[in-house]
């Protein structure tokens, strides 16, 4: 795993999480992971890229997608893509259970950051699970 990718609708939330991950209590662990945080544009993805394209790009680049609104609305949805293309080695997708709370409630955002850090350190055991919810 090389990094984290904020879905286009969760850039602000991921910025908040990155800020919290770099604070004193979590900073050493975050730095040890050495993860990158590219943007959609840097990866050649359009903001309206289909879920399938986003998921496949994340798998190819070894990036963990952080999203809140990718769903199961059809054959090209994120959930359908994970079911169709997922393997035991696939990286999971992180789904924010309450994206708005990440922005409005620091204690909740800290809980999400802590859970994310736990997942990142346990990634060897989490490949192939499909989707993980934060917190």
Low-confidence stretches: none
Shape: globular
Number of E strands: 4
Distance between the termini: 20 Å
Mean pLDDT rating: 95
- Percent of residues in β-strands: 5-15%
Helix segment tally: 6
What fold name goes in the CATH topology slot?
A: Rossmann fold
Numbering strands along the chain, what is their spatial order in the largest sheet? 1-2-3-4
CATH architecture: 3-Layer(aba) Sandwich
- Indicate how many domains the architecture comprises: 1
The level of helicity is 40-55%
Helix-strand pattern, N to C? EHHHEHEHHE
Rg value = 14 Å
In the CATH hierarchy, what is the class?
A: Alpha Beta
The SS-based structural class is alpha/beta
Largest sheet: 4 strands, parallel
Structure description:
There is one protein chain. The chain has a four-stranded parallel beta sheet. The longest helix is centred in the C-terminal third of the chain and has 16 residues, at 106-121. The radius of gyration is 14 Å and the shape is globular. The chain is of the alpha/beta class and 135 residues long. It is built from six helices and four strands, in the order E-H-H-H-E-H-E-H-H-E. The model has no long low-confidence stretch (mean pLDDT 95). It has one domain: Rossmann fold (3-Layer(aba) Sandwich). Helix 4 links the parallel strand 2 (63-67) and strand 3 (93-96). Helix content is 46%, strand content 13%.
Brief summary:
The protein is built from six helices and four strands, in the order E-H-H-H-E-H-E-H-H-E.
What are the SSEs and their pairings?
Elements: E1 3-6, H1 11-21, H2 24-33, H3 51-61, E2 63-67, H4 78-85, E3 93-96, H5 99-104, H6 106-121, E4 131-134
Parallel strand pairs: 1-2, 2-3, 3-4
Helix pairs in contact: 1-6, 2-6, 3-4
